Amino acid sequence: MDSRPRETDAPGDPANGAAPPLAAAVTAATGDVEIIRPRNDKRGYRRVVLPNSLECLLISDPDTDKAAASMNVSVGYFCDPDGLEGLAHFLEHMLFYASEKYPEEDSYSKYIAEHGGSTNAFTSSEHTNFYFDVNSDSLHDALDRFAQFFIKPLMSPDATLREIKAVDSENQKNLLSDPWRMSQLQKHLCAENHPYHKFSTGNWNTLEVKAKEKGLDTRLELIKFYDSHYSANLMQLVVYGKDSLDNLQNLVENKFCDIRDVGRKPFSFPGHPCTPEHLQVLVKAVPIKQGHTLRILFPITPNIRCYKEGPCKYISHLIGHEGEGSLFYVLKKLGWAMSLEAGEGDWSHDFSFFCVVIQLTDVGQEHMEDTLGLLFRYIKLLQNSGTPKWIFDELQAICETGFHYRDKSPPINYVVNISSNMQIFPPKDWLIASSVPSKFSPDAIQNVLNELTPETVRIFWESKKFEGKTKLAEPWYGTSYSVEVVPPSIIQKWVGKAPEEDLHLPKRNIFIPSDLSLRSVEEKVSFPAMLRKTQFSRLWYKPDTMFFTPKAYIKMDFHCPLSQSSPESAVLTDVFTRLLMDYLNDYAYDAQVAGLYYVVKPNDTGFQVTMVGFNDKMRTLLETVIGKIAEFEVKADRFSVIKG
Ligand SMILES: [Zn+2]
Questions:
Q1: Please, which contacts does 28-34 make with residues 24 or more away whose CB atoms are closer than 8 Å?
Q2: 478 in the Ramachandran plot: left (φ > 0), alpha (ψ -120 to 50) or beta?
Q3: Start and end of every Peptidase M16 C-terminal domain (predicted)?
Q4: Disulfide check for 364: which of 93, 122, 171, 336 has CB 3.0–4.6 Å away?
C-alpha cells in the first residue's frame, strides 16, 4: 500500500490550473453549512457530525454502479516515534488484517474483491487514508467490515511479523524508484530535527532489527500508537452510494458510532525543514533510470494560507506556460528541454516548496548553467511585471470552468480527494478546495515571487553522467550524490551569460470560454438531424440530452477520392495532416489550457477534423483550423522535419 510522495502540480493542467468568473457559486444545503459544488452536479451532499465527533460527508448518486468510501485519519509519518521509522505506515497495513468482529484474515479485502471492488490506502506526512469501492448494492456489508478498522482491529503477533515483511518488500521495490529516491534525498538534505527529514515507509531493519536492539516490541508500540492517535475527532469520512441521503446517514451512524473519541489534539509541526545551510546548494545525484532532470526548489509561504488568492497557481501558470515567449518555449527551441513543470511541491501549514522540474535533453544536460540562467531571468521578468490582473482573470476562468464542468471522476478517486480536503479546508470548500483562485491579490503573488531568489534556491540535478563522480550516499535508499555550494554571485553570472532569448509574458488566450450558458432543447432527439445539404456538403446536428454541459463535439469528414488511390497519395495525405497539425501547434497550448482539443488525421476516404471541448470559443478554433486548410502551403523547413 502506497506511502507516496506528494507530486508537483502539472502546469497548464486545467484540473488544477486556471479561467472567466462565473455567476454566483452554486451551493448545497448540507445541515448547517453550504458546500460549494459544481453547477452541473446533480448529486446529493450532506455533512453529518456523529456524537463521537467523526465528521462525515455523504454523497448520494442514484446513477452510480459503484459505491465508495474513504476514511482520512489526520495522523501520518511525521508522528512516527523517533527511531521507529515507518510505524504509521506499518499500522496502515495492519488494519487490513482482521478485526474482532471479522477475525478471519483478509476477510475485508476478500469481500470487496468478490463484490466487484478494490481497496487501498496510503500514508502521507500528516495523514493516512483508507479507501475502497464496491458494487453499489454491497455497500452496507463492505462498510461494516471497513468500520472495524477504526473500532476494534486485531493485531496478532503472528500477523505483525508477516506484515513487517510486506512493508519491507514494498520498500525493496521503492529502492529502485527514482521518485522515491529523489524525494528522500531532498528530505535528507534538511534539518535532522524536523519531521520532514524522516524516512516514511519503514523496512525490516527499522521495524524489526533496530526495534529489538532498543528493546522495543513493535507490536506493543503499534497498539500504543493506535490507541493514542486514532481518535474519531481526527477522522474524516466520505461515503458515496446509490441510496438516499437519509439511508446513507442511518448507515454511517450505525456503523461508525463506536469509534472512540479520545479528544486527541490535532498535531502540528512548526518550523521549517530548511535552515540557511540547506540553501544555495547544487546537489548532483545519480538516478536509476537514464535521462537528465533538473529540479529547482525554493522554500515559500504555504499556498494554503492564502488559497483564495492562489499565488502559487498564478506563478506556476506562468513559469509552466508553453506558449510563445515562455521559458519552456525557449528551452524547447534551443533543443534543451523535453518537459517543464512548475508548482507547489511538498507542503504543510508550516512550510512549503515551490518546484520547477525540467527534463533535459542530452544537449540540455551540457547547458545546465544557461538553463538556470534563463529560469532566473524569467523569474526576474515576473517580479518586475506588476502582476497584470488579466492574467489572474484568465487563470480564474480556466479554473472555474475546470471545477464546474469537469467530467465525473470514478467514485473511489472522488472520495479520497474529498476526505483529504476535509482535513485541510472548511466544510464549504471541501469540494472546491484550492482549485479556484477567487481573490486577486497582487501583494500575495508578489510576496511568493519575491521568495524565488538565488539566496534561497536548492538545485537537484540528476543524471547518469555523474556516476563515479559523487562521494556521498543517502542512507535509506543509497542514492549517490554530491553537494556544492552555489552562492548568488555564481547564479548572477549564469543569468548574465545565458543566451539572449526573447522571454516575455504570454499573450491573451483567445480560447477561454466566457459564455457557458446551455442551449435549451425542446424535445428528446434520438437521431442526428440534417441541417443543410448542398452539392458539396452535408451538416448534421444532434443536441445533447444527457450531460447538460456547455460542451460540443465536432467531426468533419473531408471526402477526397484521390487521397488513398495509390501508396504515394496515401503517404502524401498523411504528410498533409501532419503538416497541418504542425502549423496549428502555436494554438495547441492555449486551446488545451482553455479546455479545447482538436486533431486532424487521415481516414479511409480522405481526412477528418475532430474537435471537443467548451462550445463558446470552438468556432474561433474551427475557423482557425479551416483557414489553415484553405491556405495550406508547404514550408520547406517544416516539411523536412515532418518527413524525417
Ligand atoms: Zn504500504
A1: 30/57, 30/427, 33/426, 33/427, 33/428, 34/428
A2: left
A3: 218-397
A4: 336
Walking along the chain (644 residues) 10 residues at a time, the average pLDDT comes out as: 40 29 41 83 95 97 97 97 95 94 94 98 97 98 97 92 95 97 98 96 96 94 96 98 97 97 93 96 97 97 96 97 95 94 95 98 97 98 96 96 91 98 96 97 98 98 97 97 98 97 95 87 80 94 84 94 92 92 85 93 93 93 90 85 77
Distance 23 CA to ligand 1 centre (A): 44
Q: Are 203 and 235 in contact (CB under 8 A)?
A: no
What are the DSSP E strand ranges found in 177-285?
A: 235-241, 281-285
pLDDT of residue 310: 97
Q: What's the CA-to-centroid distance between 122 and ligand 1, angstroms?
A: 7
Q: How far is the CA of 91 from the centre of ligand 1 (A)?
A: 9
In this structure, CATH architecture of domain 276-410+434-497: 2-Layer Sandwich (3.30)
CA of 2 to the centre of ligand 1 (A): 5
- Of the candidates 5, 19, 62, the residue with the CA atom closest to the CA atom of residue 405: 19
pLDDT at 115: 98
Question: What is the predicted pLDDT for the residue at 272?
Answer: 93
- Pairing, β 458-463 against β 281-285: parallel
Distance, CA of 588 to CA of 371 (rounded, Å) = 24
Domain residue spans of the chain: 27-178+185-256, 276-410+434-497, 529-643
Q: What angle do helix axes 567-583 and 636-643 make, rounded to 10 degrees?
A: 120
| CA 294 to ligand 1 centroid distance, Å | 29
pLDDT for res 15: 30
Residue 573: count of CB within 10 angstroms of its CB = 20
Cα 213 from Cα 235, distance rounded (Å): 34
Active site residues: 92, 163
Has domain 27-178+185-256 been given CATH number 3.30.830.10? Answer: yes
